[in-house]
Amino acid sequence: MSRHFSFRRLWALLGKESIQMRRDRLTFAMALGIPLLQLMLFGFAINTDPKELPAALVAPTQDRFTRAMVTSLELTGYYRFIAPNATAEEAEAMISRGDVLFVVTVPSDFGRRVQRNELATILIEADATDPSAASGAMSTLGTVASEALQREAGNTSDSSAGHNNISIVTHRRYNPEGITQYNIVPGLLGVILQLTMVMMTAMALTREIERGTMENLLSMPATPIEIMLGKVMPYLAVGGVQVIVVLGAAKAVFGIPFVGSLSVILAGIFVFVLSLVILGYLISTVARTQMQAMQMTFFFFLPSLLLSGFMFPYRGMPVWAQYLGEIFPLTHFLRLIRSVMLKGADAATVADSFLALGGFVLLLALFSLLRFRKTLD
Amino acid sequence: MSALAISVQGLTKRYGDKTVVDAVSMDVSEGEIMGFLGPNGSGKTTTIRLMCGLLEPDAGEGRVLGHDIRRDRGAIKRNVGYMTQRFSFYEDLTIAENLNFVAGVYGMEQPRQAVRDTLEDLGLISRKDQLAGSLSGGWKQRLALAACVMHRPKLLILDEPTAGVDPKARRDFWDEIHRLAVDGLTVLVSTHYMDEAERCHRISYISYGRLVAQGTTEQVVRDAGLTTLVLSGEHINDAAEALRDAPGVEQIAPFGASLHVVGRHKQTLMTSVNRVAQSTGVTVTPTETSLEDVFIQLMGQSKDNML
């Protein structure tokens, strides 16, 4: 045996380490299961050239020219008209909430003008808060219109029509210059809050268990709800400081516009942070060690990052993945913050997101109180 | 007969198919110091946790300070001081901060005064801003005891309070326990040390989850009905060898230059020992059976029961 290196000693160390790894079932399961699960999940869910994006159609006269336009827009694969006969007000509310990414407006004189071979105009408004989501759809527009009308003109054997007498006017709403930061920075606020809040509170109870102070705490007359609030509220204050820092930097450094009301923004952030700290607390009632709490946090963190619409357009994911994305508070927060901050949505418009986040708070708090072990059993 | 501070019957706790506490019954009178003895892993800590309302019993019932151990956990927690086996106050808080926390959680009327009095009693006023984690074992134990009695509990439960503490600190600790008992506090204390057991009013001995002996030390020693002989002389090693499987001999333990030989059946034991004494030339003198002899005997017996 060499004094500096011995295979026998190394072998002993390797043996001990692999036994410990096998004993820690959770870590082992995560190391094997998660890569496969996440590969399948994200491999199918993520799409950087999103297709079938929801759109609304505002067309008072639904004539054959209008239908031809709509059909050829759908044929590009980029548009899916979920509201084929909306009023202008309805369409405005939908794009503001983020239910649709496009509003196509076909004026009532469109068909007449096409037939008379006059200049006919279509307006396509795109939600450009996420520049990457809309860009593919926008780039196809030029060819769509002429093809559609040529085909329609061919059908009617009116050969004079369809010689590019169509003008498609596009509006990149909310972010006309396509500045990526407008989309990313408010989202980052959510992501930063999520990472720090969930992870810190996830350690809250496991630290007491690991240090042996839990037995003492339980032997004293503190009730589960007092213990939960006592653990969660300090982190709420930490979150408050983070919010001030990130919002301040968003304004001062990145020049992100605050279109909506600041009080709605702050109210949304408050409910979101509350849901995060309670989620963290729930993790800490489940995990037995700080290491497990950390692993669970990351297990939660990655899918929420990828499926919430932070990194990739939410509407570009397959429908099943969109449903899956709904289970993350971050998804609802991103909708809320982007709607209010960039689009100037009022509280009523984003009421659904508020309700969803409030529902998370109640549900997670309930689970936590049920999970909390009042005894050492 | 005074009122009972602890009265539990048939307490049972199982983990999987392992019965850790098996039908333990115990009565402790108010103002009594009850010693709770047993080898490692015998179920002392689990029994204590059942009494404090920290574990849910699988069977059995009982009252602690008149409160049901299943239903009135809150009332028990408010009136019991429980000192855990491992130091379980916050090492990253100072002494004063720990005491302030405890005073607050128990909802004491005048927390500042209580903390100040406690610090004075401990003689820790000058070190109150020191982190609890930086204290030595003996001081940690004193701090833990002070924190447990600050809210003036009626019952104090101590789980191996003197493990790893030097003899002087142990003696001071026991003096303090007796002072508290004189003021009417009931104390249940688990320990491994025989000298500590002898400082209790009564003792309960638990082995493999079963209570196997209870009473004053004299009663426990008498009830065991053991005979103990001391062998001394030059050839005690040979004598020990010869006695190893001799009839009637149940324990052979060297004590310095002499040998303690213990057995239940006096006559058989005497016959065996006398025979060996003649052949090896050691001298035999009868002695009083010690508590330790009894405990080792009890451990051996209950192990037999398990098999």
Q: Largest chain interface and its two residue counts?
A: A-B, 16 and 23 residues
Low-confidence runs of at least 5 consecutive residues of chain B: none
CATH class of the largest domain in chain B: Alpha Beta
Largest sheet of chain A, in brief, is: 5 strands, mixed
Tally the beta strands of chain B: 14
- Give the helix level of chain B as a range of percent: 25-40%
**Gyration radius of chain B, to the nearest Å?**
23 Å
N- to C-terminal distance of chain B: 39 Å
Whole-number tally of structural domains of chain B: 2
Q: Give the structural class of chain A.
A: alpha/beta
The number of helical elements of chain B comes to 11
Main beta sheet of chain B = 6 strands, mixed
Give the low-confidence spans of chain A: 157-162
Report on this model:
The complex is a heterodimer of chains A (377) and B (307). Chain A has helices at 7-23, 25-45, 64-75, 88-97, 110-115, 131-139, 141-155, 180-211, 213-219, 224-252, 262-286, 290-307, 319-325, 329-343, 351-371; strands at residues 53-58, 79-83, 102-105, 120-127, 166-173. With 377 residues, chain A is of the alpha/beta class. Chain A folds into two domains: 53-173, abc type-2 transporter like fold, CATH 3.40.1710; 180-371, no CATH class. Chain A has a five-stranded mixed sheet with strand order 2-1-3-4-5, with helices on both faces. The two termini of chain A are 48 Å apart. Residues 157-162 of chain A have low confidence and may be disordered. Chain B has 307 residues and is of the alpha/beta class. Chain B folds into two domains: 4-221, 3-Layer(aba) Sandwich (Rossmann fold), CATH 3.40.50; 227-288, Alpha-Beta Plaits (2-Layer Sandwich), CATH 3.30.70. Helix content of chain B is 39%, strand content 28%. In chain B, the strands form three sheets. Chain B has a six-stranded mixed sheet with strand order 6-7-8-3-9-10, sandwiched between helices. A four-stranded antiparallel sheet of chain B has the order 2-1-4-5, with helices on one face. A four-stranded antiparallel sheet of chain B has the order 12-13-11-14, with helices on both faces. In chain B, strand 7 (155-159), helix 6 and strand 8 (186-191) form a beta-alpha-beta unit. In chain B, helix 8 (217-224) crosses helix 11 (291-306) and helix 9 (236-243) crosses helix 10 (266-280). The chains are: A alpha/beta (377), B alpha/beta (307).
